[in-house]
Design a protein that fits this description.
By secondary structure, the chain is mainly α. It is elongated. Helix content is 63%, strand content 0%.
Length: 305
């Protein structure tokens, strides 16, 4: 179904000549052509079908969710969709071979592509993670993407991608979120951020905030989204500091974090700002609305170009 949907999107956006080229490569790869055929075609995709945005409709995005919950391709380009189609065409389920061998062979081929891929190719590969067969076999490769010093590659793994939330353990997950904060990637685009919040991550982010404050550097207000559910006395003092910040975005973030905690101390802090408390209670200030208002305009245009 994912291949059919990708094919439909491309058929509506690229020329018939370009689509025919891609279909021919797909067929050869699916029939077990030598690896070099796949490698050459994978690299050549932008040359044959272009690099324009897919520009998906609401209906397209809904169809993607039906095929694979969590799959978001709203920021994809046609070459990324084409490359994903080629990856999904690699033989992975030949009945004549044992399941273990099928998985091993598939992953080995894919790892070779990761090893030689350029930045644009890596972005396409990492964005395709939630669609790949044998998803549990790609955890080590996904962790490599998180360690990348290329922001676009890191974002391809971390942002708008359900794979990390579903397959990373807490250690890998926490390191990914901390790095997102460190390099300035928007946390609200990390799928599963609220569900995967944990006390260890909260403490890591608070420690990071203290380091920034000590260096007289600003702290992204989004950081407190992950901290609010794990407030102790020390963190409550930090929230009091942030609530007194001159920046309204910081004040709102602190108030939202306080609203996530049931401790009397944080509730008293929230009550000290009845203006923000009222907005939260009436549903006019949520983490989603906060992100849309304060963060989307400055971040969305710079992610995954």
């Amino acid at each position: 179904m994912d291949k059919q949907l990708l094919h439909r999107w491309l058929s509506e956006r690229v020329s018939q000549e370009s689509l025919s080229w891609l279909e021919q490569k797909q067929e050869k790869i699916a029939q077990g052509a030598p690896e070099r055929v796949f490698f050459t075609a994978f690299s050549a995709v932008p040359r044959y079908i272009g690099k324009q945005a897919l520009d998906l409709s609401v209906e397209d995005l809904e169809a993607a969710q039906e095929v694979r919950p969590g799959w978001f391709a709203g920021h994809w380009t046609v070459d990324q969709a084409g490359r994903t189609l080629l990856v999904l065409s690699l033989p992975c389920d030949r009945v004549a071979t044992p399941p273990e061998y099928r998985a091993e062979t598939y992953v080995q081929t894919l790892n070779k592509v990761f090893t030689t891929a350029d930045e644009g190719e890596l972005v396409a590969l990492y964005q395709s993670l939630p669609l790949l067969p044998y998803p549990e076999k790609h955890k080590a490769q996904a962790a490599e993407g998180v360690r990348s010093n290329m922001t676009t590659v890191f974002n391809a793994v971390a942002l708008r991608n359900p794979y990390p939330a579903e397959y990373f353990d807490d250690i890998a997950w926490n390191q990914m979120v901390l790095k997102a904060v460190f390099i300035g990637s928007p946390l609200y685009l990390i799928q599963g951020l609220d569900e995967r919040a944990n006390p260890q991550l909260a403490q890591m982010l608070v420690d990071y905030a203290h380091e920034r404050w000590s260096a007289k550097r600003p702290v992204t207000p989004e950081l407190w989204r992950v901290v609010g559910g794990f407030v102790d006395d020390a963190i409550a003092s930090d929230l009091q500091k942030v609530l007194s910040d001159s920046d309204i975005a910081q004040q709102q973030a602190a108030a939202l974090a306080c609203s996530q905690s049931s401790s009397p101390q944080t509730q008293a802090l929230l009550a000290s700002r009845p203006d923000l408390q009222s907005l939260i209670q009436n549903g006019n200030l949520t983490w989603d609305s906060f992100s849309q208002h304060h963060l989307s305009s400055q971040n969305l245009s710079s992610q995954n170009k």
